[in-house]
Amino acid sequence: MASSARGVTRVLILADAPVLRRGLVSMINETAGMQSVGSPGELRRALTLVETARPDAVVVELGSGRAATLNACRDLRRRYPRVTIVALGTSEDPAVVNEALAAGVRGYLMINTSPTLLGWSILAARAGRTVVDPQIRRVEPSATPAAKPFAPEVPLTRRESDVLDELIQGQSNRQIGRNLFISEDTVKSHVKAILRKLGARDRAHAVSLVLSSRNPGCTCGAHSLAAAEI
Q1: In terms of domains, do 31 and 117 share one?
Q2: Contact, 58 vs 107, CB < 8 A?
Q3: pLDDT tens-digit profile of 6-24?
Q4: How far is 108 from 62, CA to CA, in rounded Å?
Q5: Do residue 103 and residue 209 come from a single domain?
Q6: Does pLDDT of 140 surpass 90?
Q7: Are the CB atoms for 70 and 62 separated by under 8 Å?
Q8: How many percent of the chain have pLDDT more than 90?
Q9: Which of 163, 202, 214, 224 is least enclosed by beta carbons within 10 angstroms?
Q10: Between residues 51 and 138, which one has the greater pLDDT?
Q11: Where on the phi/psi map is residue 221: left (φ > 0), alpha (ψ -120 to 50), or beta?
């Protein structure tokens, strides 16, 4: 399936609840470079719509009918291997996440995800990455020893640590400022200091370093879409 013209990522929404469908459509359409191309309420309509709407990605809700939805994901993956699938779920159970990934899902996010994280996850999944919400541990606590806290050679200040936590959640500079009650310019200064202390190339690299230290060997995590905001 060919990529969308003019760099626009075409996204199909598959969710049961009308309110959730409308919310996801708005989130996609308000994300730069993305466009919603349909939101079927039934699984059997989804595969037909994929053929006609030709999306680059499909966002699916893993609700009460998870088994049937994952079967549809397997079918979709088999018939349209270039279409990226990102799932939104309510379960933080690693077994559920792994089941979704085994069905061909490239990204698994909590259903209350932010527009920024959803947009980044779609792009990252299309680029071949496996994306898992940073709230979710991909390994059982008893299976591996607890990871040591990430400790840069030059310690972060308390406020820098607060900003880094917001970056991990995929927040933009503007939203970080709102959440921490500081100006956007101050956020930018903190981000620059964080990158310098971590030896990171950009925001995404900084988040990757932290998440990798927390979950060795795991490719999960969230990065900000707006690396250019620095």
Answers
A1: yes
A2: no
A3: 578 999 998 888 888 899 9
A4: 10
A5: no
A6: no
A7: yes
A8: 23
A9: 202
A10: 51
A11: left
